[in-house]
């Protein structure tokens, strides 16, 4: 039988769904175990969330993890994420992307080594270091794993450090909408909260984002707003902003990207993060998106627990690698 440690893993459940000629009829379900209580278990399946009373469970066990995502799948998702967080200064090194945004966030100020850099790997990383040195910035490289494992090995040889692992998590958009409740009344949610979606962030929204991400230079405003399809969620308690969120639709219209889901301390533990996610999911579905993704630090246990409960699973991970030294800009 399953135990608490199995939460977050893929499981197969055989359950009793009826009787035929006096004998039980069984049905099997495969999905990620997102909740286990004394009376029921909850799975996220391809068809959505499935809650099964333990009294109906005949047998349940963990199954081996799916094979790793393909190179193409990781590349496509990484490029959709880059489109959702667009650095204002950009260049290419073969297929690799070089990105800078006045130092605001690691994602917008790092190289993305997907594809062929059109030169040997050591020469490519030398060029990355020069590009960032010319801008007076430390060189950062985001290494999606396992896709960029050879890049990571070369950076290890060079003595580069790394930031905590980041989980890139995904789920079908229809399942996300199902997981966040019935039809949402976003204009006037229960409890007096008001959820609004806007094409541009308010000053209050930006102030909350600045509190989480640091001061907002002009480059930061570009990163936040320079996406064709973007919405900024504002949750108000009267005239007071209580929570924010940002959603983008990128990757040829497939992917809803969720980020900056933030609830102010006085309004926490009231389900506002889920309301924000639902509002953005409904909007994305209306414009044709079919899947959702987000990026969350593995050490952010409260956020990981929320996303796991909603049904997100880890597609792949990445590390942000940091040059041990900031070289001086080149003279040319």
UniProtKB/TrEMBL annotation:
Question: Which Gene Ontology molecular function entries are recorded, alphabetically?
Answer: acyltransferase activity, transferring groups other than amino-acyl groups
Give the superkingdom in one word: Bacteria
Can you give the residue ranges of the N-acetyltransferase domain?
195-332
- What is the name attached to this protein's record? N-acetyltransferase
Q: Which organism is it from?
A: Micromonospora sonchi
List the top taxonomic levels of the source: Bacteria, Bacillati, Actinomycetota, Actinomycetes, Micromonosporales
